[in-house]
């Protein structure tokens, strides 16, 4: 029987413990800028404030000119944003699949964005 899964709770693998206990991270200072790239209205970047380069490159799933719905990511990480709800979700998943290292912890961050008039 599979072990239960903890949703939206990033784990840290303590050395020698043989399990991933739930852990809450403080992410209140994490801020992202979602910006269009080019004039097509379909491509966007997501950059964490304080970083020099985007963490994600995204494509808008909805027709240009309306609200945006971004699904970004690739191998082991991603970012999803819905302009209608102003909610986002970012995840990093490599930590669990590559081994039991406390330095490479899987995480899910969720939040709500501020609208810019």
Automatic annotation (TrEMBL):
<protein>
    <submittedName>
        <fullName>Uncharacterized protein</fullName>
    </submittedName>
</protein>
């Amino acid at each position: 029987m599979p072990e239960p899964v903890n949703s939206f709770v990033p784990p840290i693998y303590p050395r020698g413990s043989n399990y991933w206990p739930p852990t809450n991270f403080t992410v209140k200072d994490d801020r992202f800028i979602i910006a269009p790239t080019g004039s097509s209205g379909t491509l966007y970047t997501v950059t964490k404030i304080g970083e020099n380069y985007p963490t994600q490159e995204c494509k808008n799933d909805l027709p240009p000119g309306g609200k945006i719905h971004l699904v970004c990511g690739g191998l082991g990480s991603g970012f999803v944003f819905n302009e209608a709800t102003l909610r986002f979700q970012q995840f990093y998943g490599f930590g669990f699949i590559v081994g039991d290292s406390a330095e490479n912890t899987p995480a899910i961050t969720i939040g709500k964005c501020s609208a810019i008039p």
